[in-house]
Amino acid sequence: MEYHKFSAKPCNSYLFFTLLLFFAFLASFAHAAVHFHEFVIEAKPVKRLCRTHNTITVNGQFPGPTLEVRDGDTLVIKAINRGRYNVTLHWHGVRQLRNPWADGPEFVTQCPIRPGQTYTYQFTIQNQEGTLWWHAHSKWLRATVYGALIIHPKLGSPYPFPMPKREIPILLGEWWDRNPMDVLRLALFTGAAPNVSDALTINGQPGDLYRCSSKETAIFPVEAGETILLRIINSAMNQEMFFGVANHKLTVVAVDSAYTKPFATNVIMIAPGQTTDVLLTADQTPARYYMAAHAYNSANAPFDNTTTTAILEYKSAPCSAKKGQSLKPIFPQLPGFNDTATATAFTSQLRSPSRAKVPLEIDDSLFFTVGLGLINCTNPNSPRCQGPNGTRFAASINNVSFVLPRRNSLMQAYYQGQPGIFTTDFPPFPPVQFDYSGNVPRGLWQPVKATKLFKLKYRSKVQIVFQDTSIVTVENHPMHLHGYQFYVVGSGFGNFDPKNDPAKFNLIDPPERNTVGTPPGGWVAIRFEADNPGIWLLHCHIDSHLPWGLATALLVENGVGKLQTVQPPPLDLPRC
Prior knowledge:
Strand content: 35-45%
Helix content: under 10%
Number of helices: 4
Number of strands: 32
Distance between the termini: 72 Å
Oligomer: single chain
Shape: globular
């Protein structure tokens, strides 16, 4: 009897602790919500710069709806294509663990949603919080099809910085005074660079410095003394930008949905695809202050040299003496268009808030040259050869100019075992070594077109060094990796030195990102663990470079068991 009495106590204790753990597990999901949305993609009249265009929008809004969720929540978004173009949607920066079917890039993880068809994107936010965004991932539709995706911490989890009084999404964009799809179509026909945009925008509005725009300039009212959080997103097609607010310091607290060590700055540099969260305290004389953005142009190429503005307006600001008119806003000092020193000084201050889990032992060390190229024509200066010296523009990684398939998406072909869609022999380093940032022989300017992927073992530790080339021009290429966050462990100008540069890597607190720029004529190194099986696009987020071929994809193999394996595709996945 003593034995039975004695054994009953541990049994009861074990049961108690098992139930406690079970209910704790349930509690972690207790506040997780499921958000249902319909995104109707269709043309609506939008007036900018004195002219009205039939513009592709989501739910009639430009920019599109802001999605607000918490870490752990699930999004179910039914995309209804009522437009005249094929379309897909990408949830930029969302990890999409084991779920490439919801990632969105056209002909990579899905076939496009054709006019009149629908597709439901369903995914769960897992251990992410901060500012991300969503956009179309079909040709140039993302010029107007985009919006903010804000991930708040789980209930009861505070920000790692003082709670702001309010939060304001700031979406930087570009506007063409014509159909952006026609701009792309013309460029692809002629082989020349696409026409630059006619205006830059903040939350879809060009601002006071453009024709027919002042009445709609975005105005953000603030109380004197309060601190606000600006969630800044560069949703522009082709333009890195400098952004600042007159007379106000910006305290950077996060980039690409990853917190940073806070630091103060007068200006930020933000590339297409990137997000930056800043705290701003309204501690100046009550008045009206411009927030403004203009181009950071690192290439020897035409660019939109206009300036977009919005207004930070103190509620206690006095009115002008003239018939109650508002005071003229104060303008910020922005760097020069080609101020690479300021851009570099900004990015070099980014650090993770604590020690980061950077892979130290590397399984796959890759060296990727990124840059432009030129395709020689048999009939130079013909209507289809309007690039430099009668050529056609191209772009490549390791001299491979990426070609998207058309018969099936890469992921569907891989899952179905369909041959002939892609190969897995993407080179881990350039086929020819040369002075990448120097004077490159013209014989190396023409890339090879192919659909080559690079294969990675599940959980392999990966390092990629992106080396910009001077072919055609040096340039800051914002490289975006789908399905992953990575650590930016080092960067520099000139050619990467594999013997000496790794010793300077920051392996303690490097910033975590999903999109990183190559310094013009320089290199940047990233590290990550390949813990997300599937096919994930890696590309320059300057959208004129993507159709030219500045992309590849990483094929991450399944691991062992269900939790390390790509989940089955949804039944309504579009077919090609």
